[in-house]
Design a protein that fits this description.
The chain is 75% helix and 1% strand. By secondary structure, the chain is an all-alpha fold. A hairpin with a 3-residue loop joins β1 (28-29) and β2 (33-34).
Length: 459
């Protein structure tokens, strides 16, 4: 299974209630609820189940993509705030970049629980409408240069709503597809979301620059109709599954397993690096290389998103632990290159080093999530215990997804603290390198070292 497919097995992935096999088409009741959903029944799947699942997937991809776009909006806007009349220190700029990641990571688990409570269609409508708040707040506040920094922070925090959409979207889609097709469906859903970070950094700068001057309010205004469209499409075309139930026991079991926390630690280094560097890169280019085109920053986020499936594919052949270690090697190499580039003031080397960082983060995202099901099923042959292990793995995946997103907060804040205390970004990069080395060593000692409990397994 590729990495994005693995990530989709969130902590609240639950079992859909199965009625006896039948071949009749799914039946809707009021509110677009479907009471019987059995995608494993080939007749049911053929007679309408497949088309309903694919329709929900397509609309889910759009809604999740939009969530990632809004989540990343402040990474685009912050470098242009000084030109709009805002007087901000570099530390304040990095706070505005980091806060959406902090909020988005924190609400990921509650968003996952929301799907079984409200229904997948209903929660997609709600979560899409919630995006109106950060979009409208941004459109207003960027036209008010005298706004206090506290109000700016509050508006930036609202963008965290977009970060929660990933968890609820993946949970919802996991109920619709049979096991044989779940990996591909969830992989497409995850890829659609991740691409939002790069696309918003590519498109929004062009939108705000149309005409004379810089019109930052457009960065928020453009997403108001898009969010409304997502809500309408979900209302008209998506479905709720009444048999989708949250598996709280699996979540609890995952919290008691040490591997949940080890892998969550590793995921801070992979997914956290992707989100953190994606948010910080435009501001880093603007402040460290003012002569360079900041519009190139989107390439990094795209590289990270597009290399993520590669990490899962290669891990299927060679093992997730090996590729995770290799990804930390790439991250270390990229950070070392960035240090040299800053000392030599070489834009080309700096940009190239960050492409290595994004590649390492993307591959590591896939590889680390590929490890989770392998770790939890290692050494288990009894079918009953294997079922429990699969559910615990789903819980681990959800927890790791939330914890890993905190890296999007730590990295921008690390850059800010280094600049504030030492006048340079270099100390932060050395701290990141130390973390990558520690993570690589941890992966090796726990999952690869000869004599360790899992060394004989293909992790």
């Amino acid at each position: 299974m590729s990495a994005p497919a693995s990530e989709s097995l969130t902590s609240q992935q639950a079992s859909t209630q199965h009625a006896p096999p039948r071949t009749s088409a799914p039946v809707h009741r009021s509110g677009r609820w479907i009471d019987h959903w059995d995608p494993e029944d080939t007749g049911f799947w053929r007679d309408g189940g497949r088309s309903i699942a694919r329709r929900n997937l397509a609309l889910s991809i759009y809604a999740e993509f939009l969530g990632f776009c809004v989540w990343a909006l402040w990474s685009v806007v912050v470098p242009q705030l000084p030109a709009a009349g805002f007087s901000l220190t570099l530390d304040q700029q990095f706070w505005l970049i980091a806060l959406p990641s902090l909020v988005g990571a924190t609400i990921r688990i509650p968003y996952t629980f929301a799907v079984p409570v409200f229904g997948g269609r209903n929660w997609t409508i709600i979560s899409a409408l919630l995006l109106l708040l950060p979009a409208a707040a941004l459109a207003w506040v960027v036209t008010q240069p005298d706004t206090s920094f506290g109000v700016l922070l509050a508006c930036a925090a609202l963008a965290g709503f977009g970060g929660g959409n990933f968890a609820s979207s993946m949970t919802n889609i996991s109920f619709f597809f049979p096991e044989a097709e779940k990996g591909k469906a969830l992989g497409l859903n995850a890829a659609g979301g991740n691409l939002g970070t790069g696309i918003v950094q590519m498109v929004v700068p062009a939108i705000v620059a149309v005409g004379a001057g810089i019109h930052l309010e457009r960065a928020g205004l453009v997403f108001i109709p898009l969010a409304l469209l997502a809500a309408v499409l979900a209302w008209r075309g998506m479905d709720n599954l009444s048999g989708a139930k949250a598996d709280y026991r699996a979540f609890a079991n995952a919290t008691r397993n040490r591997h949940t926390w080890i892998i969550s630690f590793l995921y801070i280094g992979t997914f956290g690096s992707f989100i953190g560097y994606s948010g910080a890169f435009p501001t880093l280019l603007k402040t460290q290389f003012p002569e360079a085109p900041v519009t190139l920053a989107f390439i990094g986020a795209l590289v990270g998103a597009l290399t993520r499936p590669l990490g899962g594919i290669v891990s299927d052949r060679l093992g997730g632990a090996r590729i995770t270690i290799a990804s930390f090697g790439l991250l270390t190499l990229g950070a070392l290159g960035a240090i040299v580039a800053l000392r030599q003031h070489s834009f080309a080397l700096f940009f190239g080093s960050f492409m290595v960082l994004f590649t390492g983060a993307g591959i590591g995202n896939g590889a680390t999530y590929r490890m989770i099901p392998a770790v939890f099923r290692a050494g288990i042959t009894d079918p009953g215990r294997l079922s429990v292990a699969r559910k615990a793995a789903a819980g681990c995946i959800g927890i790791a997804g939330a914890v890993g997103a905190y890296g999007g907060f730590f990295i921008p804040r690390g850059f800010a603290m280094a600049k504030e205390s030492f006048g340079s970004l270099v100390p932060a990069l050395w701290v990141f390198i130390a973390a990558y080395v520690l993570m690589a060593v941890t992966t090796y000692v726990v999952y690869q070292r000869k004599g360790s409990a899992l060394a004989a397994e293909t992790i």
